């Protein structure tokens, strides 16, 4: 089993693919400072997701070459547009250099650059190391229901070149339809650049999203809310690793790779909405570049997971309130009226999106998991969903809450976001009124695990504020105890003491249990309901046995349909769900009768479905019975021959149909 050291190159490729394309485009657009780095991943996902759709419409393959050509063309167009058209508005671009930097607690000129290295470095190290320990190996896969879809979707995009969100659907021709594919497109690009193993590519991209993109995104939002100061930066990085509900839990539930990846970029969209309304205080002209940034980032996040865009719009509603208050004071002002009109349009648009963009609740089986009192307790203890209490979060979040209430006008946004996250969590976890629960939590399938992750993201600004408040109070105390000490040394001592204490306390308890659940989900406990080592070994042998143009049958719930992911061969049932054609249904029910029913052989020849995998009957659905009845007697079926076997996993061929 390879170690994580062996996967250094795939991780470097994943970082380059996730960050590089977006960085090129936003740099061509003239973005500077932290905005450029914060937009990099969302814009990469926009280019990949939208590009795959356009290539699909043009019937061109999606892959590294076509992506690179499209990227270069887009970057050139953006650069020329900026030079020829946008020169008059680029001065309004909301770069970090325009943000207030430095306070009495942050006096040294080197403080912010050093804080960036420390904050982002700590966050990346804390999150990635825990994820790696939980996953166990770069080739390990989550032994969970949704991973059948994710692995095969990536494999199909890599081998077929079709990464369009308009047709990914449930991966079968009969169930073609919309499914947001940007995350899968990005992973497929990593595979196309030489990372042949789908599991390594998937682990690399998902860990990069959680440990690199997430800290950069929350740091960008925190500095918009609280100022670009060293203590804010360092504490943003440290606090980004504290919630068990996000990002760790989404690796062990589902597994929800697209939703997790979308949430890592959510703070950027919230911060851009904030900047948009702030820019409106000066002039409408200054809002144009921010709007362009939203247009650039929004599609990528939406094509990763649409519900994340809905969440961002809802969390950012608080920023539409100041223009309305300004109108009360300046009723005769034309700028005030125009900004109020924009704010009203934003509120109405957000309400419409919130009500319309939601999945069919027939696919949302989750019921409330707590009574109202327990749900309120989970909110107060900062322990959503899992019931795991991160003890360090309680005093830190309480400090942030008290400070925000005492300075409510200054920190209204952080309060509003935390309140919104709390309401949504309560609705999903404890609200039994079906209408209200569906109304408030239906966007996220009424699923408490998903909303718990959203709650963590929404409350994190308060946690950062609390950690910073404690740090500044300690720095003031150090100054009183040692008045002769250097002004820059006091906040450094306070940051080291408070940050160190939060890291030591925060990485225990809830996060230790979250890592344990992660290990169980990735098969470290010896339970492998989706794919055992023997089954995976047989899948990896298939390219030498099964011709490239022929199809393999297998029960998707047992992992026997993972041939697109691990073998580069088409599966008749690439997902547990999905519509089946009439001919496909014939084979699913009668494939093992090829030796006695000529009609079955006719369908086998029509679909080139000469092969079948038997991985037993126990799978991710927990059943011990055949889901595909045409494969339940393969060893004794006439006209069927066993071709290969690894342990209990076997490959059969319909020799009677040749």
Can you describe this structure?
Pfam families: DUF6541. It comes from Microbacterium plantarum. The chain crosses the membrane at residues 7-31, 37-58, 65-85, 107-127, 200-220, 232-250, 256-277, 284-302, 308-327, 339-357, 388-405, 412-432, 452-475, 487-506. The structure is a single chain. The chain contains 25 helices and five strands. Helix 10 (257-279) packs antiparallel against helix 11 (287-302) and helix 13 runs antiparallel to helix 14 (334-356). It is mainly alpha-helical. Strand 1 (551-553), helix 23 (563-566) and strand 2 form a beta-alpha-beta unit. It is globular and about 90 Å long. It has two domains: 4-519, no CATH class; 533-657, no CATH class. The protein has helices at residues 8-28, 33-57, 64-84, 111-135, 147-160, 182-192, 198-226, 230-239, 244-252, 257-279, 287-302, 306-315, 321-329, 334-356, 372-380, 393-406, 412-430, 434-441, 448-481, 489-506, 510-521, 533-541, 563-566, 582-590, 598-607; strands at residues 551-553, 570-571, 611-614, 641-646, 649-653. The model is unreliable at 89-107 (pLDDT under 50).
């Amino acid at each position: 089993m390879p170690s994580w050291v062996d996967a250094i190159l795939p991780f470097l490729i994943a970082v380059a693919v996730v960050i590089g394309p977006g960085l090129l485009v936003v740099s061509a657009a003239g973005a500077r400072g932290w905005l450029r780095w914060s937009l990099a991943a969302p814009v990469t996902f926009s280019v990949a997701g939208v590009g795959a759709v356009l290539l699909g419409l043009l019937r061109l393959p999606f892959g590294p070459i076509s992506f690179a050509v499209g990227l270069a063309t887009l970057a050139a167009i953006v650069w020329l547009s900026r030079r020829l058209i946008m020169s008059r508005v680029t001065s309004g671009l909301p770069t970090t250099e325009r943000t207030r930097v430095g306070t009495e607690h942050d006096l040294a000129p080197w403080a912010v650059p050093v804080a960036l290295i420390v904050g982002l470095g700590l966050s990346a190290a804390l999150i990635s190391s825990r994820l790696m320990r939980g996953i166990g190996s770069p080739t390990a896969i989550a032994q969970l229901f949704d991973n059948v879809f994710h692995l095969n979707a990536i494999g199909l995009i890599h081998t077929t070149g079709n990464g369009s969100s308009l047709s990914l659907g449930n991966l079968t021709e009969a169930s073609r339809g919309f499914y947001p594919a940007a995350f899968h497109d990005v992973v497929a690009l990593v595979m196309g650049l030489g990372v042949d193993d789908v599991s390594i590519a998937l682990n690399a991209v998902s860990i990069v999203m959680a440990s690199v993109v997430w800290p950069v995104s929350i740091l960008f939002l925190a500095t918009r809310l609280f100022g670009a100061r060293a203590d804010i930066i360092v504490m943003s990085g440290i606090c980004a690793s504290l919630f068990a509900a996000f990002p760790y839990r989404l690796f062990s539930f589902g597994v929800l790779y697209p939703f997790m990846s979308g949430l890592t970029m959510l703070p950027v969209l919230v911060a851009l909405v904030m900047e948009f309304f702030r820019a409106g205080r000066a002039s409408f002209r200054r809002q144009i570049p921010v709007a362009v940034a939203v247009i650039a980032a929004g599609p990528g996040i939406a094509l990763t997971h649409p519900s994340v865009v809905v969440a961002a719009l809802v969390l950012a509603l608080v920023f539409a309130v100041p223009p309305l208050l300004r109108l009360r004071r300046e009723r005769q002002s034309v700028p005030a009226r125009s900004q109020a009109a924009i704010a009203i349009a934003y509120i109405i648009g957000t309400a419409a999106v919130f009500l319309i963009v939601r999945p069919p609740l027939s696919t949302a089986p989750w019921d409330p998991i707590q009574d109202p009192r327990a749900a309120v307790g989970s909110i107060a203890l900062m322990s959503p969903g899992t019931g795991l209490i991160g003890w360090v979060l309680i005093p830190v979040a309480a400090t942030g809450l008290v400070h925000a209430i005492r300075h409510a006008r200054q920190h209204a946004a952080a309060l509003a976001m935390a309140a919104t996250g709390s309401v949504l969590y309560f609705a999903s976890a404890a609200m039994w009124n079906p209408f209200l629960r569906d109304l408030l939590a239906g966007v996220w399938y009424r699923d408490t695990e998903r909303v718990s992750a959203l709650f963590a993201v929404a409350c994190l600004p308060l946690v950062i504020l609390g950690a910073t408040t404690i740090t500044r109070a300690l720095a003031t105390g150090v100054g009183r105890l040692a008045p002769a000490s250097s002004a820059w040394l006091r906040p450094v001592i306070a940051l080291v003491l408070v940050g160190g204490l939060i890291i030591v306390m925060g990485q225990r308890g809830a996060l230790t249990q979250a890592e344990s659940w992660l290990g169980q989900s990735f098969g470290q406990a010896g339970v492998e309901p989706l794919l055992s080592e023997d089954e995976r070994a047989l899948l990896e042998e298939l390219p030498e046995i099964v011709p490239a143009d022929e199809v393999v049958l297998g029960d998707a719930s047992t992992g026997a349909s993972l041939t697109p992911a691990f073998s580069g061969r088409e599966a008749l049932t690439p997902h547990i769900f999905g519509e089946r054609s009439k001919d496909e249904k014939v084979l699913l029910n009668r494939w093992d009768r090829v030796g006695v029913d000529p009609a079955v052989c006719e369908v086998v020849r029509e679909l080139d479905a000469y092969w079948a995998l038997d991985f037993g009957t126990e799978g991710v659905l927990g059943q011990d019975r055949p889901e595909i009845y045409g494969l339940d007697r393969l060893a004794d079926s006439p006209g069927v021959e066993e071709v290969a076997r690894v342990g209990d996993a076997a490959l059969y061929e319909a020799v009677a149909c040749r």
